[in-house]
Amino acid sequence: MFKNALVYRIEHWDAPDLAEIEDRLAGARFLPCGATDPESSGFVEPRGENHGALAENVGGQIILKLRAETKAVPGGVVKDELERRLDAVEQETGRRPKGKRAKELKEEIVRELLPRAFPKRSATMVWIAPKAGLVVLGVTGAKKADAIVTRLVELMGGGFRLGLAQTQLAPATAMAAWLADKEAPAGFTIDRDCELKQPDSEKAAVRYARHTLELDEIGEHIRAGKLPTQLAMTWQGRVSFVLAESMAIKRIKLLDGVLEQAEAQAQREGRDFDGDVALVTGEMTGLIADLAEALGGWQERSDAAPAPLTAPTLAAAATTTTATTADAPWD
Asked: What is the pTM of this model?
């Protein structure tokens, strides 16, 4: 359900009932790209059932699924066709089009070829946890996350407002201490992958892959000024992941013990969408809570005004963007 995750906190939400949310999402249902449309996005049924609900409530967890479709003409094809047309105009008029006219020809070629381009689709899961006051997006990139958040704010109603989750201790600072001390925080273990970068213009980097990280040289790199940008960890022997300096959680994987328990339960009760959601959100709720505690707890906003949700804001790791959580009707 989630291979990657970016966590937000609900700053305010007078939550409407699920039926109203469903009505709001219906106006933003996914439609495939038209013949000349380069992209399209919208909500689809999380269960994968045609004409089903767009918002699923599973044990108080609200699950949405956003689908995106893009069509692109290969750059090489456009370049070759443009050269052919420029040559033809030059032979006919004696002058080779440049500047604005060349750009117009290129755009004309793209419009003509788009209907023949193959579409590519992707899907992003959105998990709203009203009781915990969290929203989790299945992405790590700031630009994509910003677009999804903007859409959610427009659609959810009730003054829905989100802030990127921030902790008292910056992840890079905490990861540096864990590596230098060769000791993970309570409930976690350090795995075998990490990346350290020098925070200057040269961005000198050192990467360890499938390698023990209990090395004195890592402490030397940190003392020399390099900071961890990514660190592979495991929580409670149940979930492995990579923590990024931006607080993004990458490469999420439920481990064998958890999957064996889930399989045994599925054999007794039958595996379905609800069971999968309960499993993943249950594990992720514990992971996120313990990770926040290991990083000094959530950072609270000092004022009521929301920070603007721009791409730089999403990528920043030092500004305050969280507030208290409104009560929600789902328990």
From this structure: 0.80
Beta pairing partners, 56: 63
Per-residue CA distances from 310 to 11, 132, 149, 256, 299 (Å): 16, 24, 10, 39, 19
- The answer to whether the CB of 55 falls within 8 A of the CB of 62 is yes
Residue 126 vs residues 43, 50, 51, 137, 141: alpha-carbon distances, Å: 10, 19, 19, 5, 14
Q: What is the mean pLDDT of residues 209-213?
A: 93
Length reported for the chain: 331
Q: Checking phi first, is residue 253 left (phi over 0); if not, alpha (psi -120 to 50) or beta?
A: beta
Q: 327: which residues sit within 8 A by CB, 6+ positions away? A: none
Does residue 205 surpass a pLDDT of 70? yes
Cα separation values, 262 from 46, 123, 203, 254, Å: 20, 24, 43, 10
Cβ proximity of 133 and 9 under 8 Å: yes
Tell me the average pLDDT across 77-93.
92
List, in sequence order, every residue forming a beta bridge with 228; answer none if it has no partner: 196
- Please compute, for residue 235, the number of CA atoms within 13 A of its CA located in the half-sphere on the CB side: 21
At 323, the pLDDT band (50, 70, 90 cuts) reads very low
The average confidence (pLDDT) of the chain is 87
pLDDT of residue 256: 87
The values of phi and psi at residue 206, to 5°, are: -130, 130
| C-alpha span between 90 and 170 (Å, rounded) | 59
* Least confident range of 195-204, 233-242, 258-267: 258-267
